[in-house]
Amino acid sequence: FWEEVPVNGRSCITLLAVGSLLLPCVGCGSRHDGTTPEMTESQAKTIRVEGSDTMVNLAQAWAETYHGKRPDVSVQVLGGGSGVGIASLINGTCDMADASRKMKDKELQSAIEQQGVEPVEHIVGYDALAVYVHKDNPIDSISLEELAEIYGDGGNITNWSQIEGGADLEITRVSRQNSSGTYAYFREAVLGKERDYKLGSIDQSGSKDVVALVSKTPGAIGYSGMGYATPEVKMLKISEKKGDPGVAPTVENAVSGDYPITRPLHIYTLGEPDGVVAEYLEWIGSAEGQAVVSELGYVPVINKDE
Length: 306
Hints:
Helix content is about 30%, strand content about 20%. It has eleven helices and eleven strands. Strands 1, 2, 3, 4, 6, 7, 8, 9 and 11 form a nine-stranded mixed β-sheet that branches. A two-stranded parallel sheet has the order 5-10. Strand 1, helix 2 (about 55-70) and strand 2 (about 75-80) form a beta-alpha-beta unit. Helix 3 (about 80-90) packs parallel to helix 4.
């Protein structure tokens, strides 16, 4: 008998043939691991993953690769943002929440109150958050100070000509929706805890959408995971201060800590997982699972720890 959190009846992206049908929620919240005597063997081998759009491609690749090893296990993946995944975990409707930010204290407390168990954080990789511009933009490097003046409330940089080497072209700010972990991380890392975003940005619901819009807009600037780069955009080098040499968003620079906007990628579970969920998480942290992290342009935990 396999133990795991049960799934609910909402529609989601089902990646694998074993999970082609969604399963009804049985006995939700009855135990922190969600198991009930009525669950069938098929239900107990379905893992539901929700959360970060930054991580959704990685989560899908993990699911597909793992299914090749364990065809008896179905991993269903749904994006929607870190906040969405964390909310689902708190409600007991997913087994694993992908998050590109840490859970907030109030979210941890809410999980304890609703599920009777504290969420456990698992760091499964690292992401160098890239700053993207159109491929024809002459700018190659930008500082955190300049980024704060572009995105921050009260910031005075509105034209690329205000940055050394920039053309006379109005800046179009592309951002993420406020439920995104990327949105929260960029605000803290670039704007600081006391400063908020200025109004007037074009907010996108997904990491891929940010890059796609920047690729079509000559004056645009946006931020997203470095794994979403395409030939139609340019990733800028980033420096701590204006005038300092910029550092490129690469795996090597993220591992060394030289790139200033590098963040951990989290998976949260309700308590320590067991059964198929524990086995899946163990595989994600293995050399094979971390090879998938590298293949998609992220930084493996194994490399980061070396």
